[in-house]
Write a structure and sequence with these properties.
It contains no helices and two strands. It is mostly beta strands and 90 residues long. The protein has a domain at 1-50. Strands 1-2 form a two-stranded antiparallel sheet. It is elongated and about 45 Å long.
């Protein structure tokens, strides 16, 4: 397994050190509270842009009333709305 990865990110992201939170939501318990699987990674952005972002509070970025917080993947599961705040765009 690699210890470092290089990727291209949108050019509007300002240079700096970031904490990337990777979150998987297990929705295999119909109607029940989902299971959260979380990992973090330190990211260094170089040569970035100047967009400012408002950020979100963790915990609190996902609410039990969000669409997709609960789902029944075993009964007519045709679409899914990811819970949480909208994705920031450049």
């Amino acid at each position: 397994m690699s210890q470092t990865y290089s990727v291209s990110i949108p050019s509007c992201i300002p240079a700096g050190e970031y904490l990337l939170r990777i979150e998987q939501l297990a929705i295999h318990n119909p109607g029940g509270v989902p299971q959260f699987y979380i990992s973090c990674a330190q990211v260094k952005v170089t040569g970035g842009g100047s967009k400012s972002f408002s950020g979100v509070s963790i915990p609190g970025h996902i609410k039990s009333t969000d669409p997709g917080y609960t789902a029944n993947i075993y009964n007519n599961f045709n679409s899914y709305t990811v819970p949480g705040p909208s994705v920031s765009k450049c």
